[in-house]
Amino acid sequence: MVAETLTIAVDFDGTIVEDEYPKIGKPNIFAFETLKKLQNKGHRLILWTYRYGRELDEAVAFCKENGITFYAVNKSFPEEQFDPKYSRKINADLFIDDRNLGGMMGWGEIYQKLVGGDATQFQRPKKKKSWFGF
């Protein structure tokens, strides 16, 4: 059985690094280790951040220096075209963000749930086919 890969959107400020916007804060403990492990398992990571322009370029470069190259940045997929000055919702299976309801769980807990545990609990349920949309 081949495990399904997930598309995971990850915020930058306050999530991957401590929130020091517009500067880049210190990496949050286990953030890069967990992201690397997720990529090694075949999951697609999208950097989903408020940053754009020079600040975005700095964040992408910082992540690359720490071993993470994203599948896409502020887009659902690399070829998607839109004006990057405007934020919009993207298509992802999971979002990792410090603004979650209930707050940001630690990267150690994220690691256990997605890498060390059973990641199938996060897969989208299969939709039943029917004549009606409910």
TrEMBL record:
Molecular-function annotations in GO: hydrolase activity
Top-level lineage group: Bacteria
Annotated keywords: Hydrolase
UniProt KW Hydrolase keyword: yes
NCBIfam families: HAD_phos_BT0820 (NF046079)
Annotated protein name in UniProt: Hydrolase
Species: Halomarinibacterium sedimenti
